[in-house]
Amino acid sequence: MSLPEIFREPLPDVETVVLTFSFGANMCTSSLQGRGVVVEKSARAILKNYELIFNVHSAPFEGQCSYGNVRKQEGSEVHGVLHWVKAKYMLALDQFEDPLYSRITQKIVTYEGEEVSGYIYIANLPDNSPAFPPGERYLKVLIHGAKQENLSEEWIQKLKGLEFVPYKKLTWTEQQLKDLKAKAFKKDEISEHFVINGVVFDQSTETSPLLKRLLRGDMTLTALAMVSYEPKVTSFADASKEQITAIESVIANTLNKKAILGHIEGACLYLSSEPTA
């Protein structure tokens, strides 16, 4: 199925409870709550005659990997979670999924065998769109969600067996360190730049209007929250080893694409990696 333009099925009254099927990061009710969505109840379910693919290219700071999508494939199935939510929360999810995913209605079968109609988000891509493996962070999010929601062990093992792109190791060149130390920015000076853990990157060369709008300001807490299989933290000082690794990977991937302008005044800069010559 190819959806070249954003399409959204009409919604009923905002207080009406509707069903939405999640196969990715939104499987966990905690993830939905973090996006301001109140879940009435949930059930394990299957989207039949579709397959899980990874052809939605990730944000540049996650490297050469992809996010999840589904496409029609006779005889295949995708396991996930069916959530009952008020229609007003679908509007919030619509905004979160813009501009990559359309929302359509499909038949979903619960683990108990009941067939219902529910919304699914499907990417606006041709069926032959090239796929890349998911990133380590994203795949761990899917596995964590599948375990937390008690999906079938067969499905969990399928996810565990997928190829993935590992976190990128962070190393510094002497020039990068020189650029890092060149200028100290105050926090009120970074609103138009892309900042991770005190490292200020030049966002002026970004050619995508969407990324230029979304990836600006201090994104440290946002990046930490994306490691949703780890306990939520409110500062980098409280980050787990896994969250630190994820932040290092964001910086490492961004070093390949954007120039360093300097650092945030008083910020912790070097994480756990040593500079290289």
Number of DSSP helices?
8
Strands of the widest sheet, in order across it, are 1-3-2-4-5
Radius of gyration: 20 Å
Helical content class: 25-40%
Low-pLDDT runs of 5+ residues are none
* Arithmetic mean of pLDDT: 90
Q: Biggest sheet, open or closed, and with what strands and sense?
A: 5 strands, antiparallel
The SSE string, one letter per element, is EHEEHEEHHHEEEHEHHE
Q: How many strands?
A: 10
Distance from first to last alpha carbon: 50 Å
The coarse silhouette is elongated
Structural class: alpha+beta
Strand portion, in percent?
Answer: 25-35%
Task: Based on the model shown, name its key terms.
8 helices; five-stranded mixed β-sheet; 10 strands; alpha+beta; elongated; 27% helix; five-stranded antiparallel β-sheet; 277 residues
Note down, in words, how this protein is organized.
It is built from 8 helices and 10 strands. The strands form 2 sheets. It has a 5-stranded antiparallel beta sheet with strand order 1-3-2-4-5. Strand 2 and strand 3 (about 65-85) form a beta hairpin. The protein has helices spanning about 30-35, 85-95, 135-150, 155-160, 175-180, 210-215, 220-225, 240-255; strands spanning about 15-20, 40-55, 65-85, 100-110, 115-125, 185, 195, 200, 215-220, 260-265. The protein is elongated and about 60 Å long. With about 280 residues, the chain is α+β, with helices and mostly antiparallel strands.
